[in-house]
């Protein structure tokens, strides 16, 4: 089936994504009127692949995902009714493409946002357990009716008006780089996560966030739980979280790939975040510095 005009623009943030971007673009080529790729000055052939496949490339220096995506919303010449956010290592399943093709043109005017289910693949394995599937994310919205909340890590699309509904089918998050790349990337994530967690207690940054509700949407509930998580002692909370995911939520059923995933993402990563928080607090105590100065001294990040 060829491309059908359903009034959809797709925005993708990239940096050296030549291994993923073709797969991503191919998955939306039948439903996207326009694809804008906001690139952080890649040094591989990401830009060439995007242009070859009809994507429009804009360039902007990267600060964090929230800042980059909101820059994209402000600077991409979006002319369609609907906008989709997609990461370069993600792709839509054909069933989701068909669902979007059929539903977008007939949605009621009061529907402004669509939630999609994310499947995470790790080392070729679909991670089904450990409270990791389904993860519902607001990824499609009416142009002008949503923004990306301003956070250093774990940012969500925030609906400004209207109602939302949930689609039935999935998109896939499948990073094809090896474990060394995964560890390096998550080291960077841990620095940004440490900034977010410190801000929850120190309140030194203004952030536009989704509401916190235990019985709200999945991201609202996740934010509520995160604010409770930060109240637990450093280094104890990664143990609790891993135990919850791997044993209580049956992460062990994901096999040996799941063991690696849940340990690294559910324990090691959060332990690393706590270690960076410990460094930040030590710098503040020893040097009498404020959070912003400590973040620059320890993490090399300007906030």
TrEMBL record:
Gene3D superfamilies: Spore Coat Polysaccharide Biosynthesis Protein SpsA, Chain A. InterPro entries: Glyco_trans_2-like, Nucleotide-diphossugar_trans. Pfam families: Glycos_transf_2. Belongs to the glycosyltransferase 2 family. WaaE/KdtX subfamily. GO terms for molecular function: transferase activity. This is Glycosyl transferase. Residues 9-105 form the Glycosyltransferase 2-like domain. PANTHER family: GLYCOSYLTRANSFERASE, POLY-BETA-1,6-N-ACETYL-D-GLUCOSAMINE SYNTHASE. Keywords: Transferase.
């Amino acid at each position: 089936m060829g491309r059908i005009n359903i009034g959809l623009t797709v925005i993708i943030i990239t940096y050296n994504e030549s291994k993923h971007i073709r797969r991503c673009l191919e998955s939306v080529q039948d439903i996207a009127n326009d694809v804008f790729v906001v690139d952080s000055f890649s040094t591989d052939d990401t830009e060439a692949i995007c242009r070859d496949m009809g994507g429009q490339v804009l360039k902007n220096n990267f600060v964090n995902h929230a800042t980059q995506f909101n820059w994209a919303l402000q600077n991409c010449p979006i002319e369609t009714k609907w906008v989709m956010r997609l990461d370069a290592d993600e792709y839509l399943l054909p069933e989701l493409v068909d669902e979007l093709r059929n539903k977008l043109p007939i949605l009621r005017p009061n529907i402004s946002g669509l939630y999609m289910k994310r499947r995470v693949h790790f080392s070729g394995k679909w991670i089904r357990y450990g409270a990791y599937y389904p993860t519902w994310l607001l990824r499609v919205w009416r142009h002008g009716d949503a923004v990306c909340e301003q956070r250093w890590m774990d940012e969500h699309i925030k609906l400004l008006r209207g109602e939302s509904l949930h689609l039935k089918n999935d998109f896939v998050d499948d990073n094809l780089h090896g474990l060394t790349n995964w560890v390096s990337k998550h080291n960077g994530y841990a620095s940004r996560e440490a900034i977010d967690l410190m801000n929850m207690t120190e309140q030194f940054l203004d952030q536009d966030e989704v509401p916190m509700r235990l019985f709200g949407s999945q991201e609202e509930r996740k934010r509520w739980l995160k604010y409770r998580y930060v109240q637990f002692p450093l280094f104890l909370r990664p143990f609790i979280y891993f135990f919850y995911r791997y044993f209580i939520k049956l992460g062990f059923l994901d096999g040996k790939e799941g063991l690696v995933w849940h340990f690294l993402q559910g324990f090691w990563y959060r332990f690393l975040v706590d270690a960076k928080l410990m460094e930040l607090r030590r710098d503040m105590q020893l040097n009498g510095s404020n959070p912003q100065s400590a973040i620059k001294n320890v993490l090399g990040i300007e906030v």
